[in-house]
Amino acid sequence: ACHKPDKDLTGPALKGAVARWDGKGDIYAWVKNSTDYLKTGNPYATELFAKWNKSIMTPQALTNEEIDAVFYYADNYAPKTPAPPPGGETAGTPGGSDDGSSATWPWMVVIALLLLIVGLSLGGVKTSLTNAVREAEGKQ
């Protein structure tokens, strides 16, 4: 994604975009195909294009209503604040406990199983190679 509702990224923040475009051009045409819209010579579009390092926005197959919905979402966006942990303690403070609900433990199990499989496979390969060498030397 090149845009965030409330922060500049590769492109400008979307919050307030409609107000910034007010009376300066066709924001729908800009969102749908900025490359074609730049060809109209619109001064605000040309200024935006230059300000954002001449980054070309991918054409969007959206209706005007869908574009309105995106801008409505951005204008009303409020970032979620994380809820404090139960017991009023913060992670990493004395008295805090790790109840095992961390998302890392499933990955640790997967990695351990993969290492076990690799180890068993290598043991089987070693046995097969040892038997092949004995057979080639005529020892059985």
List the SSEs and their pairings.
Elements (H helix, E strand, L loop, with lengths): L16 H5 L5 H6 L1 H5 L4 H9 L12 H12 L29 H32 L4
Account of the protein in words:
- The chain has six helices and no strands.
- By secondary structure, it is mostly helical.
- Among the domains are: 17-75, no CATH class; 104-140.
- It is elongated and about 90 Å long.
- The mean pLDDT is 87.
- How many strands in all? 0
Q: What oligomeric state best describes the polypeptide chains here?
A: single chain
Order of helices and strands: HHHHHH
Q: What is the C-alpha radius of gyration, as a whole number of Å? A: 29 Å
Outline the low-pLDDT stretches: none
List the main descriptive attributes of the protein structure presented here:
single chain, 140 residues, mainly alpha
Short synopsis of the structure:
By secondary structure, this protein is mainly α. The chain is 49% helix and 0% strand.
